[in-house]
Amino acid sequence: MTNAINWFEIPVLDFERAKKFYSEVLGQEVVDHPMPEFKYGILPYDQEAKGVGGAIIEAKDMQKPSADGTTIYLNGGDDLSAPLSRVEAAGGKVIMPKTSIGENGFMAQFIDTEGNKLALHSMS
């Protein structure tokens, strides 16, 4: 097994609002991937390298946004300061600034436009 995580889904209430938020914060477009019963958008990831990927999903009565529970750490690139600086302008809220975690790099946490708590990680 290469990674403990294979795929993740971030529940959203308003697909278009969340799509805009994640596209702005990550600096890359969230790609629509319509499903018959719900709205689905693929977050950027390296498919050729078989990287871990994920999506946003608007599926009423199936999944609900939450600031409690599991925290997903999104790739902050070379320096998470760049995507973190776009969180509030895109409608989210930074709840933990860029914080050193020693030899493991840096992390920061935020609440997205839907009420989910997520984090960013980078080595610098």
Spell out the key features of this protein.
124 residues, 2 helices, 33% strand, 4-stranded mixed β-sheet, alpha/beta, 2,3-Dihydroxybiphenyl 1,2-Dioxygenase, domain 1
Walk me through what this model shows:
- This protein has 124 residues and is α/β, with parallel strands linked by helices.
- It has one domain (7-122): Roll (2,3-Dihydroxybiphenyl 1,2-Dioxygenase, domain 1), CATH 3.10.180.10.
- The protein is 15% helix and 33% strand.
- It has two helices and eight strands.
- The protein has helices spanning 15-26, 81-87; strands spanning 7-11, 31-32, 39-42, 53-58, 72-75, 93-100, 106-111, 117-122.
- The strands form two sheets. Strands 1-4-3-2 form a four-stranded mixed β-sheet.
- A hairpin with a 6-residue loop joins strand 2 and strand 3 (39-42).
- Helix 1 packs antiparallel against helix 2.
- The longest helix is centred in the N-terminal third of the chain and has 12 residues, at 15-26.
- The radius of gyration is 14 Å and the shape is globular.
- The two termini are 27 Å apart.
The N- and C-terminal alpha carbons lie at a distance of: 27 Å
Q: In what range is the share of β-strand residues?
A: 25-35%
Q: With helices defined by DSSP (H or I, 4 residues minimum), what is the helix count?
A: 2
Helix content: 10-25%
Order of helices and strands: EHEEEEHEEE
Unreliable stretches: none
Shape: globular
Overall pLDDT metric: 95
Largest sheet, if any? 4 strands, mixed
Strand order of the largest sheet: 1-4-3-2
Question: In angstroms, what is the radius of gyration?
Answer: 14 Å
Instruction: Specify the structural class.
Output: alpha/beta
How many strand segments? 8
Which fold name is given in CATH as the topology? 2,3-Dihydroxybiphenyl 1,2-Dioxygenase, domain 1
CATH superfamily: 2,3-Dihydroxybiphenyl 1,2-Dioxygenase, domain 1
What's the CATH class, please?
Answer: Alpha Beta
